[in-house]
Amino acid sequence: MSAIHIRTSGHHQPGLAGGAGTHGMVAFGTGLDCYLSYRPTFQSPYNYQVLLEVALDERGSRALGADRRSGYTGIHTFDPEDFPIAELDPGRARPRKSFRGTLIRGRRERDGIAIAGDVLATVRRVVHFAELDPDRERGRGLLTHLCFGRPSRMYLAHHIARQPSFDQIVSAWIVPGTVTDLLGEPLADEVVRKTFEQAQPIILGQREFTGMRLRAGELAVAAFPATAASGGAQGFLAEIAVERQIYLEVADLA
């Protein structure tokens, strides 16, 4: 099930420096992984794209697992305590390693239901952290995505680079037998069996803002640069199958 979120102005607290304020996050993953994705805008102090791999405490893990076993396939969100989002920057001398919050089935601003309160989220890894520049030139361009997770169960997040843009997360996997070098010569699947612990930038063709976004069931050829899981020796191409859309937000980044 896909989800489109439009943030209401009541969730902002202008004037709090460094990204302080209410930071709604999308919670997703499986029993082997759990991720939180901050929901940004281009307006300071909310202009950060942040992807975290986290471990929820027992209360949160049980609540999330029970919801999924019951057959719920919609969105989960996490409303953390109020803190400056910049504290999660891994480049800081002492970045924040944990925070507490409420796990919600759905979205609080759309009659979401709290399923666990005072949940501790421990940051295992900052998968991606970038400050968005609201003054960057508006325009179109290639939709570069961020790939993270495992090749058999990975996630793609739209890399938010310029305004207008959108925030999208999908689950996907690399189709076996489709890996080639940049010239189209076949490569062994082992090239991409490494876990994408840090988000790797990929390019999925000429996808402009006004054009197609990723759709469930879609097959797309992705170009991985040499900095991806190729050991830095070379880039490669691979076919990616999109399983489902987890989250889509447009209005906040228009």
In what range is the share of β-strand residues?
A: 35-45%
Can you tell me the overall shape?
globular
How would you classify the helix and strand content by structural class?
mainly beta
> Using DSSP, what is the number of strands?
12
Alpha carbon gap, first and last residue:
23 Å
How large is the count of helical segments? 1
> Helix fraction?
under 10%
Descriptive overview:
With 254 residues, the protein is mainly beta. Helices cover 5% and strands 40% of the residues. It has 1 helix and 12 strands. Strands 1-2-3-6-5-4 form a 6-stranded antiparallel barrel. Residues 1-19 and 228-232 have low confidence and may be disordered.
Question: Could you give the topology of this structure?
Answer:
Elements: E1 25-30, E2 33-38, E3 48-56, H1 58-69, E4 76-80, E5 98-105, E6 113-131, E7 144-150, E8 153-158, E9 167-174, E10 196-203, E11 219-224, E12 236-249
Antiparallel strand pairs: 1-2, 1-4, 2-3, 3-6, 4-5, 5-6, 7-8, 7-10, 8-9, 9-12, 11-12
Task: Write a short abstract of this structure.
With 254 residues, the protein is mainly β. The protein is built from 1 helix and 12 strands, in the order E-E-E-H-E-E-E-E-E-E-E-E-E.
Defining traits:
1 helix, mainly beta, about 250 residues, six-stranded antiparallel sheet, six-stranded antiparallel beta barrel, globular
